[in-house]
Design goal:
Blueprint lengths: L1 H13 L8 H4 L26 E6 L9 H20 L3 E6 L6 E7 L2 H10 L3 E6 L10 H7 L12 E5 L13 H4 L2 H12 L3 E5 L2 E4 L1 H6 L5 E3 L18 H10 L10 H8 L1 H33 L5 H7 L8 E2 L10 E2 L4 H10 L2 H31 L5 H4 L5 H5 L3 E4 L6 E4 L3 H43 L8 H6 L2 H35 L4 H29 L6 E2 L2 E2 L1 E2 L3 E2 L9 H37 L10 H6 L10 H16 L7 H23 L14 H23 L2 H11 L15 H5 E5 L20 E5 L15 H31 L5 H49 L1
Antiparallel strand pairs: 1-3, 1-8, 2-3, 4-5, 6-7, 9-10, 11-12, 13-14, 15-16, 17-18
Length: about 900
C-alpha cells in the first residue's frame, strides 16, 4: 500500500496540468494558456525543452462505469511505467486536452546526456566532418534538373563523413549546436527505444515492459512523435521548422506528379525506412517508363496490323466461318453454334496475339534483370548516403517482445558465454513446424477456393449456354459481344476478385498471429518472416486463377465423343478457336484494375473519412486553436506494420507486369499510370492524414528483393509457356512454314489461307454418346458433322479421332520454343548480372574514404596524441635523470 501511495503522489507531481499549478487551478485556466496561441509549438511550457514523444491516456477519474478496480489496476501500471521512465532520466510534462478533459497528454523530453548515452548503445552513426569527395554529374543530369525540386525551396543536405557515436570521443564529432546535432527523427528514435524498454510490472519473476504492450491493453490510447507544423500553412513560429509544409507543397501535392521526389528530406523527416520505400517506388516507376513505351508500341503494332490477320478474316467471312458449325461445348443443354459468333473476339485477339507479343515477352525478360541490377546499385548508393551500410551488424536491436520471453539459458557458440533465449532448440523446431503447417493449411484453403471458382465456371457455363440466344434472328448484335464464354469469364473474374479481397482480410490477421507466435528476434527478422508468409498467400490468391486460364483451361478436354470431366461431373472448359489468351487478358484487366481501385479507396478515402468524422464529432473544434500534440492525436495511426502493405501491393503488381505480360502488353503502361498516382497518394496520406511515424533505420527493401528476383526467374518460364500453350502463335507459325505451301510449290507464296479449316477437326454427329447429345434445335436438325478445336483424324480414317501428324509437329515446336527462349533470356540475364556490379566504383571509393577517415579520426589520432604525451613525459624524465646523475659522473 505504501508503494501504491508513493506512485500516486509521483503521478500527481509529474503530471501537473498547465505547468506548475494545481489541477483545480488548471481547470479554470483558458485552454491557450500553455502554448500561448502558438499551435505549432514543439516545446515544454518553458519553451526550452523539445517534445520528443507524446503519450496519451484517458483519466480514470473521468471514466464512467463500475470497473473501478480494473481502472485502478491500469493506473498502477501506468504510474509504475512513468516512474521507470523518470528513473531513466527522461523528463515528462502533462496537460489535459482543449476539446475533451478526459484525455491527458504526457510530453516526453530526452535530455542531452541521455541522447548521448543511448546513441552509443544503439550505434547511431553521426557526423564526423563534412565530406571532401567531389560529386560527379550524371550524363542525364540536365534531365533530372528539369524535373527536380527547386534547390532554393528545399536546400540540399550537407554531406558528412559519419561514424558510430562514442560518448568518450564527443570532441571528434562535428557538433556546432547541441540542439541540432541530434535531428528530430533521431531524437524520436531514441525516445521510442527507451519507451519500448520501460518496465511497468513484474509477474512470476518476469518483467513486463514496453509501450506497445500498454497500447494493446488500452492503458495508453496513443504514442507518437509530433509533426513539426501544419501541412497546409507555414508555421509563424520562428523556432519551429516547416519540413512537413515543404513536403506537402513540393512532394505530396498532385501538381508534383511529374517531379522527382525530395528523397533526402523524406529520409530526414520520416527516417530511412520510409525513404527507402519511396526511393524504390520512384525507381521502379522510372524503369516502368521504358517498358510502357515498348509495350504500347507492341500494342499499336497489333492494333494497326489486325486487318492483315488472315485467320480472323476467315472466322468473320460468311463463306468460310459462316459455313463452319462448331460442336457443343457442354452436354445436353448446349447446341451447335456458328464460328462467326467469335468474330469480334478474334479481331481483339489479333491485337494481343501478334509477333509484337513475342518481341515484348523477350524484352521484358531482359528489362526485369536491368531493373533489379540497377536497383542494387541505387540501393548501395542510398546505403552509403544514408549511413546504413553496417546497420544490420551494428545497430539493430532485439525486439522487446523477444526480450520479454527470454527465460532459457544457452551458451553462445561464438562468444562461449551464457545468454538468454525465449525457447530451447526443441521448442524452436516445434514452433517452426506449427507455423509451417498453419501456412500450408491456409494456402490449401486458397486452392480450395480456386477449385470452387472453377466449378462455378463449369456450372454457370451450362446456364449461359442454355439461356443466351444462339444466332437467332434479331440477336446477332448481342451475340457479337455476349457469348457464353465471355459471360462466364467476366462473372467468374468478378467473383474471384471479391473472394480474393475477403481472404486477404482474413489471412492478414492469421499471418500476424503466426509470426507473433514464431517470435523472431529482431524487427527485420519479424518483417521478413511476415513478408514471406503474406507473399506466399497473396501469390496463390491473386495468380492462381490466371495460372488456371493460362495453362490448364482448354488443355485437357478430350473430344466431343469422349470428353474429359472435372470431378467426374462437370465437363472441362474449352477455349475459343483462337485460344484462351483473350480470356487471360480479361482476367488480368479485372484483377489489376479492381485491385488498384480498391487499394486507393482503402488507402485514401477511409483515412480521410475517419478524420472528417472525427472533426465533425468534436464539438466547437473549428472555433478553438489546438496545440500541435492534440492536432496530431486526432489523425490516424499508420499501424504496426507501417509500409508493409504498400510493398505488398507493389510487388503483387510487379508480378502481374512480369509474369503474364505476354498476354497483356499494356500492363506496364497501366502500372506506370497507377504508380505515378501511388507515389503522390502515399505521400499525401502519410503527410496529411496520419500521425508522424517513428523514424526507423533500414538497409534496403528486405525480403522483397529476393522475392522479386524469384518472380523475375519465374516470369521467363511463364511468358514462354503463355506464348507456346496459351496463344495460337506457334500453331500458326508451324502452319505457315510447313503446310501453307503445296509440295513443289513456290516458296514465295507462303500464306495463312486455310489455317482455320486446318486447325478444326471434324466430328460425326452419330458418334455422340447418349449423355452427351446436344439439345435439339430446328436450325441444326439435319446436321451430320460438326467441328472442334483440336488436331485429330476425321471419322472414317484408320486412326479416327487420334491425334494427327500436325499435332505432334506443333507439340515439338512448342517445346523447342520454350527451351530456346528460356536459354537465350537466361543467358542474357546472367550476363547482365555479371557485367553490372552491385556497387558502383564511385560508391566504393566513398565507402573506403569514409572508413579511412574514421580510422584516422577515432583511432590513429588518439594514439598519436598518446604517443606524443608519452614522449614528452619520457623526455622530461630523461632530463631530470640526466640532471641528477651528472655530478656522479663528474
Amino acid at each position: 500500500m505504501e508503494h501504491l501511495r508513493v506512485l500516486e503522489e509521483l503521478e500527481q507531481t509529474i503530471i501537473p496540468s498547465y505547468g506548475a499549478v494545481t489541477n483545480q487551478q488548471a481547470l479554470h485556466m483558458p485552454e491557450w494558456a500553455e502554448f500561448n496561441l502558438q499551435p505549432d509549438s514543439l516545446y515544454f511550457n518553458d519553451g526550452q525543452r523539445r517534445i520528443d514523444f507524446v503519450l496519451v491516456y484517458e483519466d480514470e477519474n473521468k471514466k464512467e462505469g463500475h470497473k473501478k478496480s480494473f481502472h485502478r489496476k491500469q493506473m498502477r501500471k501506468r504510474q509504475a511505467y512513468q516512474s521507470n521512465l523518470i528513473s531513466r532520466a527522461l523528463q515528462l510534462e502533462a496537460t489535459r486536452t482543449v476539446l475533451d478533459e478526459k484525455c491527458i497528454f504526457v510530453k516526453v523530453h530526452v535530455p542531452w546526456e541521455v541522447l548521448c548515452k543511448y546513441a552509443e548503445i544503439m550505434h547511431i552513426r553521426l557526423p564526423l566532418q563534412p565530406s571532401d569527395l567531389k560529386t560527379h554529374d550524371s550524363a542525364f543530369g540536365w534531365i533530372r534538373k528539369f524535373f527536380s525540386v527547386d534547390k532554393e525551396i528545399i536546400k540540399p543536405e550537407q554531406d558528412f563523413f559519419t561514424a558510430p557515436f562514442e560518448n568518450d570521443r564527443l570532441s571528434d564529432f562535428y557538433i556546432q549546436d547541441k540542439d541540432t546535432f541530434f535531428t528530430p527523427a533521431t531524437r524520436s528514435r531514441i525516445a521510442y527505444f527507451i519507451l519500448c524498454r520501460g518496465e511497468y510490472a513484474i509477474r512470476d519473476n518476469v518483467k513486463k515492459f514496453g509501450i506497445n504492450k500498454l497500447l494493446d491493453s488500452g492503458i495508453y490510447k496513443a504514442a507518437f512523435p509530433l509533426h513539426d507544423s501544419r501541412f497546409n500553412h507555414q508555421s509563424q513560429d520562428p523556432t519551429c521548422p516547416n519540413e512537413r509544409y515543404l513536403l506537402y507543397r513540393e512532394w505530396a501535392h498532385p501538381r508534383n506528379i511529374l517531379k522527382l521526389q525530395p528523397l533526402d528530406l523524406v529520409r530526414k523527416y520520416y527516417g530511412e525506412k520510409i525513404g527507402i520505400y519511396f526511393a524504390w517506388l520512384g525507381f521502379y516507376t522510372q524503369m516502368l517508363l521504358l517498358a510502357a513505351i515498348v509495350g504500347l508500341g507492341c500494342f499499336l503494332y497489333g492494333y494497326f496490323t489486325r486487318d492483315n490477320c488472315t485467320w480472323s478474316q476467315e472466322v468473320c467471312d460468311p463463306n468460310i466461318g459462316g459455313n463452319i458449325i462448331m460442336c457443343p461445348q457442354c452436354d445436353q443443354e448446349c447446341t451447335y453454334w456458328n464460328l462467326t459468333i467469335t468474330c469480334e473476339s478474334s479481331k481483339k485477339l489479333c491485337i494481343f496475339d501478334s509477333f509484337g507479343t513475342l518481341v515484348f515477352a523477350v524484352f521484358m525478360g531482359i528489362w526485369v534483370t536491368l531493373f533489379l541490377e540497377f536497383w542494387k546499385r541505387r540501393q548501395a548508393e542510398l546505403e552509403y548516403e544514408w549511413d546504413t551500410v553496417e546497420f544490420l551488424e551494428q545497430e539493430e536491436q532485439v525486439r522487446p517482445e523477444y526480450e520479454a520471453r527470454c527465460r532459457h539459458v544457452v551458451v553462445n557458440e561464438i562468444t562461449q558465454q551464457e545468454e538468454h533465449v525465449p525457447y530451447t532448440t526443441c521448442g524452436k523446431c516445434m514452433r517452426m513446424a506449427f507455423c509451417t503447417s498453419a501456412v500450408l493449411f491456409w494456402i490449401l484453403l486458397i486452392v480450395a477456393s480456386v477449385i470452387g471458382i472453377i466449378v462455378y465456371r463449369l456450372s454457370v457455363f451450362l446456364v449461359f449456354s442454355a439461356t443466351l440466344p444462339r444466332h437467332i434472328n434479331g440477336t446477332e448484335a448481342i451475340q457479337k459481344y455476349l457469348t457464353p464464354q465471355a459471360a462466364t469469364s467476366v462473372s467468374a473474374s468478378i467473383i474471384s476478385f471479391i473472394i480474393i479481397m475477403i481472404l486477404n482480410m482474413v489471412y492478414e490477421k492469421v499471418a500476424i498471429m503466426i509470426t507473433d507466435f514464431e517470435l523472431p528476434r529482431t524487427q527485420t527478422e519479424y518483417e521478413n518472416s511476415l513478408t514471406t508468409k503474406m507473399f506466399l498467400f497473396q501469390f496463390v490468391n491473386y495468380y492462381s486463377s490466371c495460372f488456371y486460364i493460362a495453362f490448364f483451361k482448354g488443355k485437357f478436354v478430350g473430344y466431343p465423343g469422349d470428353p474429359v470431366y472435372w470431378l467426374g461431373k462437370y465437363r472441362n472448359e474449352e477455349c475459343d478457336p483462337g485460344g484462351c489468351l483473350l480470356e487471360l487478358t480479361t482476367q488480368l484487366t479485372i484483377i489489376m484494375g479492381g485491385k488498384a481501385i480498391w487499394n486507393n479507396i482503402q488507402e485514401v478515402l477511409l483515412p480521410w473519412l475517419k478524420n472528417l468524422i472525427g472533426r465533425c464529432c468534436s464539438a466547437n473544434r473549428s472555433e478553438k486553436i489546438l496545440p500541435r500534440w492534440e492536432e496530431d492525436y486526432h489523425l490516424q495511426s499508420i499501424g504496426k506494420l507501417g509500409l508493409f502493405y504498400e510493398y505488398l501491393e507493389m510487388v503483387i503488381q510487379f508480378g502481374f507486369v512480369t509474369l503474364f505480360v505476354a498476354s497483356f502488353p499494356l500492363a506496364p503502361l497501366l502500372a506506370l499510370i497507377n504508380n505515378l498516382l501511388e507515389i503522390r497518394v502515399d505521400a499525401w496520406k502519410i503527410t496529411t492524414q496520419f500521425r508522424r511515424m517513428v523514424p526507423e533505420k533500414a538497409q534496403g527493401i528486405g525480403a522483397w528483393q529476393p522475392i522479386m528476383q524469384g518472380i523475375a526467374l519465374l516470369a521467363v518460364v511463364t511468358n514462354a509457356m503463355i506464348i507456346a500453350f496459351t496463344s495460337d502463335m506457334i500453331p500458326r507459325l508451324v502452319y505457315y512454314w510447313s503446310f501453307s505451301v503445296p509440295p513443289y510449290g513456290n516458296h514465295s507464296s507462303y500464306t495463312m489461307k486455310g489455317y482455320i479449316n486446318n486447325t478444326l477437326s471434324v466430328f460425326a454427329v452419330s458418334d455422340f454418346r447418349n449423355e452427351s447429345k446436344p439439345a435439339f434445335h430446328p436450325r441444326f436438325a439435319n446436321q451430320t458433322t460438326c467441328r472442334y478445336r483440336d488436331f485429330r483424324y476425321p471419322p472414317g480414317h484408320e486412326y479416327q479421332y487420334h491425334h494427327n501428324i500436325y499435332y505432334w509437329h506443333v507439340i515439338a515446336a512448342k517445346l523447342s520454343f520454350i527451351i530456346v527462349m528460356e536459354h537465350i533470356i537466361y543467358f542474357v540475364k546472367f550476363a547482365i548480372s555479371y557485367i553490372i556490379p552491385d556497387v558502383s566504383k564511385e560508391t566504393k571509393s566513398k565507402i573506403k574514404r569514409e572508413k579511412y577517415l574514421t580510422q584516422m579520426l577515432l583511432h590513429e589520432n588518439p594514439l598519436k596524441s598518446v604517443k606524443k604525451n608519452i614522449g614528452s613525459i619520457a623526455d622530461k624524465f630523461l632530463k631530470e635523470a640526466d640532471f641528477t646523475l651528472r655530478p656522479k659522473y663528474e
